[in-house]
Amino acid sequence: MGKKVILSGIQATGNLTLGNYLGAINNWKKMQEEYDCNYMIANLHTLTIRNDPEKLRNNTLNLLALYIAAGIDPNKSNIFIQSQVALHAELAWVLNCYTYMGELSRMTQFKDKSAKHADNINSGLFTYPVLMAADILLYQADLVPVGEDQKQHLELTRDLAERFNSIYGETFKVPEPFIQGVAARVMGLQDPTSKMSKSSSIPNDSIFLNDEPDIILKKFKKAVTDSENVVRFDIKEKPGISNLMSIYSAITGKSKENIEKEFEGKGYGDFKVAVAETVIEELKPMQEKYKELINNTDYLEKIYRQGAEKAYSIANKTLEDVYKKIGMIL
Questions:
Q1: Nearest-CA neighbor of 190 among 244, 271, 145?
Q2: Is-contact 232 180, C-beta < 8 A?
Q3: Spatial distance between the Cα atoms of 15 and 290, rounded to a whole number of angstroms
């Protein structure tokens, strides 16, 4: 039995946040030792909103450099750019024809994004989960790392795989969710009831991976807490301080109970500085490596071209099987 296959990716929009790092990339780094990992830069998914073309190209390369700087090893994991493997769009069209309107209309992310982009509610926004399903099923992924906000999309992927298999015989692996652990959902510093976002318009709400140390310290010092001034974990009553504790716990490995003891008798000011310093030290090696990589365009091109070739060779086997079963002439 070979290693289980993992497929995951992040959209090439905006700067990555501490939430992206702790909730996804840092866990990916650990997975690559045990699994056959495919990590995608999801630039086709960004097209549901209007992008500046040059900015999108830069964001794509920035994300590639950050993947590698954060510890995703191209010798252990396959890193590729989604748009360079056209089979994603091909399988998405096929799967669209096996997806029901009612299924897509129930997707909560469609409702959320429609509210945010009321002037651009396009069909791509509606069928976005089908492209996500194609991403996963092309690589016969056993496991998909997902946060709570993506579980519904994975359920649709599983439904589509089972539906297709029931009609045409065993074709797709039915993927299982790989639910990530501590700090898989880092919240905003100014709005601790909402997930930390690359696109947040709230000042000081998100820590970006390329933030300078003084900016990181400033943002944590301004983080919303409460009036109790006691470092205690209670998501309902103390969402702000609980979020900071989750971040500190994820980086240090300390339990919530140990953190409470460590800062017993100390105020929020001391704790905020401690969290900031911990984050700064955690990000420092990655930021240094990123600065080296982002200027090495030849190396980055080599990685994404090799990644696309490998991804195509895997995905093409799946799509050929699909096409044969549905009656396409190859």
A1: 244
A2: no
A3: 13
Instruction: Tell me the domain boundaries of the chain.
Output: 5-179+297-326, 213-291
Q: For residue 143, give the nearest of 31, 20, 26 by alpha carbon.
A: 31
Run of H or E including 7: strand 5-11
- The pLDDT tens digits of the residues spanning 94-129 come to 999 999 998 988 887 766 666 666 677 778 788 999
* Amino acid at the residue 70: A
Please determine, looking at this structure, whether the domain spanning 5-179+297-326 carries the CATH number 3.30.590.10: no
Q: What is the pLDDT of residues 27-86, one digit of tens each?
A: 899 899 899 999 999 999 988 878 889 999 999 999 999 999 999 999 999 999 999 999
DSSP 9: E
Compute the distance between CA of residue 95 and CA of residue 273 in angstroms, rounded to an integer: 49
If you ran DSSP here, which 8-state letter would residue 46 be given? G
Q: How far apart are CA 35 and CA 137, in angstroms?
A: 17
Give CA–CA dist 12/286, Å, rounded: 18
Could you give the CA distance from residue 9 to residue 84 in angstroms, rounded to a whole number?
A: 14
Task: Specify the amino acid at residue 64.
Answer: L
The overall pTM is greater than 0.90: no
User: Which residues carry out catalysis?
Assistant: 113, 195, 198
Which residue type occupies 61? Answer: L
Tell me how crowded residue 113 is: count the other CB atoms within 10 A of its CB: 18
CATH number of 213-291: 1.10.240.10
From the CB of residue 258, how many other CB atoms can be counted at a distance below 10 Å?
Answer: 12
- The DSSP H or E segment spanning 80 is strand 78-81
